[in-house]
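Input structure tokens:
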């Protein structure tokens, strides 16, 4: 209870700050259930403990402070890495997810039912995210709002592209199943293009380094 009181006090004091919002978004993106107050407590506690241990070991004040700073930033960096990996995994699944949903829609299932197929039979993180969307809509949250929240949570540009296409389709009409099949192909092409650009960039780095050394 005392710990909960401390967390509650921290939320009252920092709940409206940008750092609090950033920690909450990092935790959501990494699919971590820890609250910002807990992440902050781990960061500060780790920093103090690390600095104290290093000071006791006699490494000197500058190194002790540096170690404490690294410990302070470590939880945030871990969340960033985990979130980035989860976003890449979602992007890698997205084209197949769209094809599965397209198939479900073409045989007459509803949009919600096509998402349920992903939530029930898909792989994480796509199954987790679509399951959350369905849970939110069952609690009364509008579908469009829940989908946009998923896009913000994941941070996927490909997913935002999909949602924008769906919005346009609703305005002009047409088959959602056909649209998803088309978007699936487009997403694959976008991802292939990005991988090719990254590969070419990686190949160019050693060449540039050698060129600079020779000059």
């Amino acid at each position: 209870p005392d710990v909960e009181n401390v967390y509650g006090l921290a939320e009252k004091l920092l709940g409206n700050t940008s750092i609090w919002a950033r920690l909450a978004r990092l935790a959501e993106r990494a699919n971590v259930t820890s609250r910002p107050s807990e992440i902050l407590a781990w960061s500060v506690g780790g920093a103090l403990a690390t600095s104290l241990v290093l000071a006791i070991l006699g490494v000197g004040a500058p190194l002790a402070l540096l170690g404490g700073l690294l410990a302070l930033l470590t939880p945030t960096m871990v969340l960033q890495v985990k979130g980035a990996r989860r976003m890449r995994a979602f992007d890698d699944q997205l084209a197949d997810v769209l094809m599965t949903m397209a198939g479900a829609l073409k045989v007459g299932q509803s949009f919600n039912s096509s998402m349920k197929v992903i939530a029930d039979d898909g792989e994480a993180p796509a199954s987790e995210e679509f399951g959350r969307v369905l849970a939110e809509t069952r609690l009364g949250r509008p579908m469009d709002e829940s989908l946009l929240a998923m896009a913000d949570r994941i941070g996927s540009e490909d997913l935002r592209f999909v949602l924008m296409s769906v919005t346009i389709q609703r305005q002009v009409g047409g088959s959602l199943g056909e649209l998803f099949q088309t978007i699936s192909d487009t997403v694959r092409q976008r991802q292939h293009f990005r991988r090719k650009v990254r590969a070419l960039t990686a190949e160019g780095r050693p060449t540039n380094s050698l060129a600079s050394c020779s000059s």
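The CA atoms of residues 137 and 145 lie 9 Å apart. The chain has a mean pLDDT of 86.
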